[in-house]
Write a structure and sequence with these properties.
Elements (H helix, E strand, L loop, with lengths): L3 E2 L10 H9 L11 H14 L3 E5 L2 H10 L7 E5 L3 H4 L4 H6 L2 E5 L9 H7 L11 E7 L12 H14 L3 E5 L2 H8 L3 H5 L4 E5 L10 E5 L1 H13 L8 H13 L4 H17 L3 E2 L9 E6 L6 H10 L2 E2 L1 E3 L2 E5 L6 H23 L1
Parallel strand pairs: 1-11, 3-4, 3-5, 5-6, 6-7
Antiparallel strand pairs: 2-8, 7-8, 9-10, 10-13, 12-13
The structure holds pyridoxal-5'-phosphate.
The site of pyridoxal-5'-phosphate has 13 residues, from helix 3.
Length: about 350
Amino acid sequence: MSVVDLRSDTVTLPTDDMRQAMAKAEVGDDVSGEDPTVNKLEEMAASLMGKEAALFVTSGTQGNLLGVLANCQSGDEIIVGANSHIFWNESAGVSALGGIQMHLVPNQIQGSLSPADVEQAIRPTGNPHFPPTKLICLENTQNRSNGGVLTVDETASIWNLGHEYGIPIHIDGARIFNAAVYLETPVEELVKGADTVTFCLSKGLSAPVGSLLCGTADFIDNARRWRKMVGGGMRQAGVIAAAGIVALESMITRLAEDHSNARRLSEGLAQIHGIQHDPGVVQTNIIFADIAPELGSMTEFVERLGRENVKVHYVYGRIRMVTHRHIGSEEIDLVLSATARVIEDMRSNRIG
Ligand SMILES: *Cc1c(COP(=O)(O)O)cnc(C)c1O
């Protein structure tokens, strides 16, 4: 029996078109700037984001790390959301490798940052007690905040503030195309006031490996040196960049399917007595839910669901389910019936 894997959209496998493009890719030594396929991908990325240049990096984590390192020095401070991937999921790379302190401000329920909170977190200059604030980071979509979407206005309120104080803005746009598809807005509009942006090819876009960091040509030159330093200089990287080109050409608009499947899953889950979930907060492909505490533990739920061939993540103290290319409406039905069965089992175990 096949497994329905909702742990993440990173589990998506490359398409046949991607494998063919990889097999045929024209390649060269990218560390010397001589891989035509990488160069093409970087140009496509820069143009999609409306930035001067882009850099192909190994992962979203590396893109964010270089984005921060190339904007800051040791002893500086950056402002990030308390729910941010940079804070929670990147092994404190900016602190360990960059000597940079993270200043947390709360994320709103759908992931945005309040301009008042950010302004309060900006350090006054000229006071030797304070590390200087050198970067403000946003995340769109905001993974841990229900996969929430930051609108152009919500983003603009922060980049206006940044410009007022002379502080650049970085967007962790691992799933920025999910936001663009949800808002039916060109992705360029969502990042136009940001100085730098990272996005992932290997999430819902289904490419096997890789992310892009985008910004000014000078910034990207600087980031390229940092990439080499952290061991991210790849040689015939066109083999994987080729899949990324296919992803950008053909995998963006289909993200709407992931969103409508997530919507069906979300509404179905909300009907199951014993699952605590508010479908009102679901916008894209990420769903968080809790199990009514009297039924037992979340880890027990995850384990039992696994025995029903449904894999979900237990993260941040909640159950997370992510829809993606390998989850269609048949899989949603399977997940809902398996969930209802597991919950009923857990309930009768407690009563019995
Ligand atoms: C996945 C993700 C990243 C990058 O993750 P990698 O696994 O390093 O590619 C960055 N930010 C967010 C919000 C993510 O979900």
